[in-house]
Amino acid sequence: MSAPIDLNLVRMFVAVRDAASFSLAAAQLGVPRSTASRAIAALEDSLGFELFQRTTRKVVITAEGERLFARIAPTLATLEAALTDLPEHEEAPVGPLRITAIADFASAVLTEAVTRFSARWPTVDLDLHLTGAIVDLARNGIDLALRVQTTAPRDSALVARKVGEVAVRLYAAPAYLARCGMPRTTRELADHDSIAFHGAAPLRPGRAVGELPSRRRITCDDMRFALDIVRSGAGIGALPSFLVPQELVNGALVRVLPRFTLGSAAVYLVRPARKHVPRRVTLFRDLVIEILQQRPLTPADLTLRAA
């Protein structure tokens, strides 16, 4: 069985035949003339016959070369057209886009991105997996993850880009503070009821409210429910900053102990490491970054950095 012939050599042969010049063919393909000459020589050695008659003034294709061209040109043109017409080479991205994130964080950050992306690119189907667990991206076929972590992912199979920071801080409803007073120090928290959540590990306070001198009255595993309870006036809540921007604007919540932060974590966009990233993934990633940079959820609590 003869050794397979490099298709790059065949492509060079067609280019030289069409240009009737090694120099012009090399220029069209963006390679040195010597590369074109060596490619044709290698192809001739593989085939066992000459493809071109070379003189100091011109290059003329041989009869054998013309017969070869007649046989391979249509096939080569069809192959190049097929590669050019692949979906990822088209203007509109296509295919499924699978994303994972913490549910509450997705509601705060991804709602706008998903709505805008699906309207702009109807050829892409978005599939969101909202969970507090760290999902194995490769095993579950996930294209992009939005993660909140205290340290950067160190898995060599992943590519992570930091896009922001989240802080866990204390908030309370004006009605509660009117009834129980505003604590001025952490010690004064001993006279107050607290609400806390025990959800995704990276969003748990670095120092739990229960470890502060406060009366932990309510604990839940849902951040949105914790927000509702704090907003209703049940006590002082430890909440991640991305949950409360609207409540701070409309006065439904007030920051308690403004200089005190219980913990913080970074926001990362994470994807599997691969040489060729589908266009639908890069388009969605760029849209999320654009939204976070132009409209931070709360400038005081979420500091965005260009990565």
Features:
single chain, 307 residues, alpha/beta, Arc Repressor Mutant, subunit A, D-Maltodextrin-Binding Protein, domain 2, 2 domains, nine-stranded mixed β-sheet, two-stranded antiparallel sheet, 11 strands, rod-shaped, disordered C terminus
Description:
Helices cover 38% and strands 23% of the residues. It is an alpha/beta fold and 307 residues long. The chain folds into 2 domains: 7-85, Arc Repressor Mutant, subunit A; 93-307, D-Maltodextrin-Binding Protein, domain 2, CATH 3.40.190. Strands 3, 4, 5, 6, 7, 8, 9, 10 and 11 form a 9-stranded mixed beta sheet that branches. The chain has a two-stranded antiparallel sheet with strand order 1-2. The two termini are 52 Å apart. The model is unreliable at 301-307 (pLDDT under 50).
What is the structure about, briefly put?
Helices cover 38% and strands 23% of the residues. The chain has helices at residues 7-19, 22-29, 33-47, 63-84, 103-120, 137-140, 174-180, 223-231, 245-250, 279-294, and strands at residues 52-54, 59-61, 95-101, 124-130, 144-149, 158-172, 193-197, 215-220, 236-240, 254-256, 263-272.
